[in-house]
């Protein structure tokens, strides 16, 4: 166990943190580094959800209304053709999407397909993502995998791709489009419930009878943000102690924006707060403002999801716990699902594939399977892979 802990320490120390670089990574990626070595991943625990189910619904609506089949998603066989698949990410400003990049490119190499990651510049760049979709349609990709910026804002462009004969898959971020081939995500509501249930358990262990919490969930309108907040409210209502949500502040997951929001929140409510729960870009941004306010011994920061940065902060005690949507596994399953469809494999396709969540804190840190969520040490973001050139 000690050896595993040391290996993870080296891995987290050496990982390239994309969030600190922002858009400055693009020049360095003009000539991308060699892709990560071919790896095999274990079958991923999932819930596959089949029709009939609620029309124009979220992934959580599908979970509530569809036929749910628990199981695992196995690695697909190598493709018989060099299919071209475009991946539309909302940005690459935090390590979560770096992990997704790793999952995509490593599997593209193993499967023998071409993959191009086309990122927008943030959750305020819907127009940019719509342009990327138009470009992918014009380039006649065989499939498109989108991580939509909005729950409904991308629906028309998804329908446009489908009308052009291009199957569109969803990765991580949710939407209410009925024109998707398959959704690959998690129960976004469960991100909120799992993180908040940890908070409640921790509060009970501390002997607290009631707690005040504040949320930094991310950008208003994003599907995962709504899931975080809805899940937190559900867990708060179910709790055996009083859980008071006294502030929610929305904003882009950019570090500067979230640091400002955290500072404002603490200036108004800091003395009252027991816990602060934030998204992958939000929770780390709150750590220094909490310290600056002298609240780090009282106020505990928890994350709705896991990145390498959050893992380091759990190890150091700056963040206490994180739910885990397993971004690397999601990306792997998404590209495998696309290849299986293009190859004509399988009879009945699920409407939605939900990757089952994890949760990490200091109690299980030494044995946690971080490779399902975090790229390997030293990984540098790669935006494309073409088997014809490698």
Automatic annotation (TrEMBL):
SUPFAM superfamilies for the chain: Periplasmic binding protein-like I (SSF53822)
Record Gene3D superfamilies: 3.40.50.2300
Cleaved signal peptide residues: 1-30
GO molecular function, one term: carbohydrate binding
Gene Ontology annotations for the cellular component aspect, listed alphabetically: cell envelope
Keyword Signal part of the UniProt annotation: yes
Record keyword Nucleus present: no
Keywords: Signal
Subcellular localization(s) per the UniProt record: Cell envelope
Superkingdom, taxonomy of origin: Bacteria
Domain Periplasmic binding protein stretches: 85-345
UniProt similarity note: Belongs to the bacterial solute-binding protein 2 family.
Name of protein: TMAO reductase system periplasmic protein TorT
Lineage: Bacteria, Pseudomonadati, Pseudomonadota, Betaproteobacteria, Burkholderiales
Gene, per the UniProt record: torT
């Amino acid at each position: 166990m000690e050896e595993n802990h040391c290996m993870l320490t080296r891995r987290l120390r050496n990982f390239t943190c994309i969030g600190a670089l922002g858009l400055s990574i693009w020049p360095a990626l003009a000539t991308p580094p060699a892709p990560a070595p071919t790896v095999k991943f274990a079958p991923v625990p999932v819930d596959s959800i089949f029709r009939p189910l609620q029309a124009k619904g979220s992934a959580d609506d599908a979970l509530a209304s569809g036929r749910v089949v628990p199981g695992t998603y196995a690695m697909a066989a190598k493709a018989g053709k060099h299919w071209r698949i475009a991946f539309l990410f909302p940005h690459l400003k935090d390590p979560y999407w770096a992990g997704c990049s790793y999952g995509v490119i490593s599997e593209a190499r193993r499967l023998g397909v071409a993959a191009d990651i086309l990122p927008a510049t943030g959750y305020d760049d819907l127009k940019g993502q719509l342009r990327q979709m138009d470009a992918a349609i014009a380039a006649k990709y065989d499939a498109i995998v989108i991580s939509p910026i909005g729950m409904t804002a991308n629906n028309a462009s998804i329908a446009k791709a489908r009308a052009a004969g291009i199957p569109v898959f969803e990765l991580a971020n949710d939407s209410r489009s009925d024109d998707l081939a398959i959704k690959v995500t998690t129960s976004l509501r469960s991100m909120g419930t799992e993180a908040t249930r940890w908070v409640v358990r921790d509060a009970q262990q501390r002997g607290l009878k009631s707690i005040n919490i504040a949320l930094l969930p991310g950008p208003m309108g994003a599907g995962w943000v709504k899931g975080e907040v809805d899940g937190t409210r559900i867990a708060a209502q179910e709790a055996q102690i009083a859980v008071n949500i006294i502030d929610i502040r929305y904003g882009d997951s950019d570090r500067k924006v979230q640091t400002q929001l955290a500072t404002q929140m603490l200036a108004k409510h800091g003395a009252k707060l027991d816990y602060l729960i934030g998204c992958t870009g939000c929770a780390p941004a709150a750590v220094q403002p909490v310290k600056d306010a002298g609240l780090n011994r009282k106020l505990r920061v928890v994350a709705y999801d896991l990145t390498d940065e959050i893992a380091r902060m759990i190890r150091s005690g700056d963040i206490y716990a994180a739910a885990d949507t397993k971004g690397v596994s999601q990306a792997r399953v998404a590209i495998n699902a696309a290849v299986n469809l293009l190859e004509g494999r399988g009879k009945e396709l699920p409407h939605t594939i939900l990757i089952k969540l994890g949760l990490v804190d200091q109690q299980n840190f030494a044995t946690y399977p971080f490779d399902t969520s975090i790229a390997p040490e030293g990984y540098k973001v790669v935006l494309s892979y073409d088997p014809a050139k490698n």
